[in-house]
Structures are given as C-alpha cells and as structure tokens.
Amino acid sequence: xxxxxxxxxxxxxxxxxxxxxxxxxxxxxxxxxxxxxxxxxxxxxxxxxxxxxxxxxxxxxxxxxxxxxxxxxxxxxxxxxxxxxxxxxxxxxxxxxxxxxxxxxxxxxxxxxxxxxxxxxxxxxxxxxxxxxxxxxxxxxxxxxxxxxxxxxxxxxxxxxxxxxxxxxxxxxxx
Length: 175
Known about the structure:
The chain has helices spanning about 1-10, 15-35, 40-60, 70-85, 105-120, 125-135, 140-145, 150-170. By secondary structure, the protein is mainly α. The relative contact order is 0.10.
C-alpha cells in the first residue's frame, strides 16, 4: 500500500515510471472486472485505456480518500456506461471463451451456466456481485464507485445472491 502511495505521489509530479507502475499493478484486475460485462474484448480494451487516460489526466484531483483501484474502477465503469448508453447494447453477453477455466468439460459447462444466469441480473446487481464477490471491494467502496448508498450495495448483493441461488436450486440434478 505504501508503494502505491509513493507511485501516486511520484506520478502527480510527472514521473512516467510511477504511472506505469500504477498501470501495471491495476490493469489486469480492471480488465478482468470489465470482462464480466461484455464478450467483446475490443470494448474492454477501449474502456480500460480510456479509464487510464482519465486517471492520468485527473491524477492531481485524486485525494487518496479511497484506494487508487477504487477510483480507477469508477472511471472505467463510467466509460462503460457511456458507451452502453450510446450504443444501447446490453452488457454482458455470454461467450464460449475458456480462459481461466480448469480443463474439465463440466467446469466449462458450469462456467457458461453461471455466466448465463449472471446475464439475467440487471447491470447494477451484476456489478455489485462482481465487485464484492470477485474483486473483494467493500460495500462502501462499491457505493462510491457506482454512485449508490452503501446500504443499497448490500441490498443489490443480497438480491443477486438470492437470484443465483434460486437458479442453482432449479438447475441442480434431482435424485
């Protein structure tokens, strides 16, 4: 954490290596997060790059009250939302990619099933679920990123879990 604070301070002073360190430390998680919302990797690449450009341009205004990654995710979410509104496309289209999956066919099938169920969630429930369960953010951080109350983040998460659990109960083998 201190290392990140140092990078931020140095990047604010114009140190390109420090900003590159911030980029390297955050790009994979940001990309992985945004992949939850679309199967089109070109869109994700664009959102990630625009988020980092905005972060670099606005770094002087970053006050450190939240983690850098929280601020960066907020910028990326805003970029994604603007594009989705402009294009009027639904986020998250399940795809056949197997990246990160175990080699077992059952794992792949389960992965596609879970992605399909998640695609049924509205954008906010899905975002809260991924930010909390996958990325490990707190409800306060999620609220800040998505522009919702902390209590709303908890409610969205509970509703998303309840929906996913009900789908699992419906789909599990009986017998």
